[in-house]
Design goal:
The chain has one domain. Helix content is 74%, strand content 0%. The protein has twelve helices and no strands. It is a multi-pass membrane protein.
Length: 303
């Protein structure tokens, strides 16, 4: 395997690891303050970081007439609607179960791309996706109720709605990335998210004080996940196809479940460990044997 391709696969793997950890960080944050306040602060931290980098980023932004409707729709889908659903979801379900729902994203993206973008996916990739999703369903069915999931059905449904908005975001991104830098688009999302969630956050209850640990969680979400994960994501797409990256999204529920076990005290049964192995098999099958170089952005990411 070419070294650049290998590095790109490793970048995607690390990116999925970071996004998997974001569910844990968000779950911890929403237990300490209003979900909308958490999302606003996360978006604001990311926006301030991008503002510092804007002198270098602005060269990749050359607005083209008529694109406002695509840019506006992109921001509406993600982060606006996406984080409304996800932040609320984590009030009712556990971080592990919410992460499991994200395994539906590759199939949903592939279906959306097939119908709207006329993209083709081979049979082996579909089989890999189905196997990975089957593993996630197994993990879900073998999970046990806990204090962290008071209404798992509602929470998982809200997370599913978040995945629907992620699909809409993906289809728009695949159109916009031909015109604008993916990193610039990410910066615009942070600015739009901060403005969108400002009035919602002001109308929400604020905590009397914020602990140092929660500040650290917010900084992690706003800086490490938003900038670090997206940076790895953008780098990998220089050398890999979007469909190749889609399979890696199936690792999100696995990483999230493992982090939930290590950091939140959730426990894995033998059946869940077997299910995790099945997810990895599905991811391996969903990868193309001869990846083609493409500069298109991959499916939407979460967290």
């Amino acid at each position: 395997m070419d070294k650049l391709v290998l590095r790109s696969h490793l970048a995607l793997l690390l990116g999925m690891l970071l996004w998997g950890s974001s569910f844990i960080a968000l779950k911890v944050a929403v237990t300490a303050m209003s979900p909308m306040v958490v999302v606003f602060m996360r978006m604001s931290i990311g926006a301030m970081a991008f503002l510092v980098m804007w002198p270098w980023l602005r060269h990749g932004f050359n607005y083209q007439k008529g694109d406002w409707k695509f840019l506006l729709s992109m921001a509406l889908f993600e982060p606006c609607l996406y984080f409304i659903f996800e932040a609320q979801a984590l009030q009712y379900t556990s971080a592990g179960q919410a992460g499991m729902v994200t395994a539906m994203l590759p199939l949903m993206v592939a279906a959306g791309a097939f119908f709207f973008l006329k993209e083709q996916t081979n049979l082996r990739q579909w089989i890999g996706f189905v196997i990975a999703v089957s593993g996630v369903i197994w993990m879900t069915m073998t999970g046990e109720d806990s204090e962290q999931a008071p209404n798992a059905i509602l929470g998982n449904f809200l997370e599913f709605l978040a995945m629907c908005t992620a699909v809409g975001y993906t289809l728009l991104i695949k159109h916009l990335v031909a015109r604008y830098s993916a990193f610039v688009l990410t910066a615009l999302q942070s600015f739009a998210g901060a403005l969108f969630f400002l009035p919602i956050a002001l109308a929400s209850p604020w905590p009397e004080s914020i602990s140092i640990s929660i500040v650290g969680v917010l900084l992690y979400l706003g800086l490490v996940v938003t900038i670090g994960a997206y940076g790895l994501y953008n780098y990998s797409m220089t050398h890999l196809k979007a469909t190749t990256a889609a399979g890696y999204a199936n690792l999100l529920p696995v990483f999230t479940l493992i982090f939930s076990m290590l950091l939140l005290g959730e426990r894995l049964t033998l059946s869940q460990w077997i299910a995790i192995a099945i997810v990895f098999v599905g991811v391996a099958l969903s990868q193309e044997r001869k990846p083609k170089i493409s500069k298109k952005v991959p499916p939407a990411v979460t967290g």
